[in-house]
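Table 4 source record.
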Amino acid sequence: MTTKTAAITAVGGYVPEHVLTNDALAQMVDTSDEWITTRTGIKERRILKPTSLGTSYMAIAAAKELIQKKNLDPKTLDLVIVSTATPDMPVSSTAAFVTTELGATNAFGYDLQGACSGFLYGMSVASAHICSGRYKKVLLIGADTMSSIIDYTDRTTCVIFGDGAGAVLFEPNDEGLGLQDEVLRVDGKGREFLKIEAGGSMMPASAKTISERKHFLHQEGRPVFKFAVSNMTAAIQQILEQNDLSKGDIDYVVAHQANKRILDAIAKNLDLDYGQMLINIERYGNTTAATLPLLLWDYESKLKKNQKLLFTAFGGGFTWGAIYLTWAYNS
């Protein structure tokens, strides 16, 4: 009996039309194109206008592109997972709305919150659903409207983040291609370094929390950088060891686009050929749960059947990990 694996069989993406350049940000806060580029590698990012369109707008657009490219009947979808840190609204599931708007009348859906690791965690979950044998088509979407939670008077965060969405379809594979192995971790002590302080059960919204600007993202760059580099490096090393792989066996590293300095440090730590790193941070910034699928969207034409890919991410919580996946099709 052949063991079924879960493989990515289609990719879609969406980024908003509005481009926020470094020069435009320099008109808003004390910064410059040189300062931003040197420290982050980012030249511009996309911003959803108006913000009230919500994360679901981008998630639906990315999914619709995938559906059109794949010539997929939405009614054949079994499950829709939306990985996001910026849902449309509390309580009401963004995935439920997305599923309905796509016409996926035979599917159920739910949100997954793993911060910047959300899509990575979603890959694990989508694969598990497929490998259970109960489901044949799982749509995984990573989407975030980071502009809705960014303080554009804080140059330490407003220069980093952008908005966007990416989607992939997971289906069973009988050739052994798809998700091969994973290392996923958390450390709750890290939540003090990357968080939105108010709006949750510990500090409900009030006039005071709003006036003190506690509903915006707060990040302490140095500890986040240190933990991100060390933990993503370690997760990749563990994946390589568990699967008897060398760095030369890997065709591409699909890493969370948080900061180019982090990407550079990981490549150096692992002695990777820089050509193995897929990078688009200069155009989109950090789109949180959308960075990994947007990399696949941008580089889909380079991906070939049987290629070995390593995914890695790090996010608030702290959350992090790595996934080893073999690509299942030629675009």
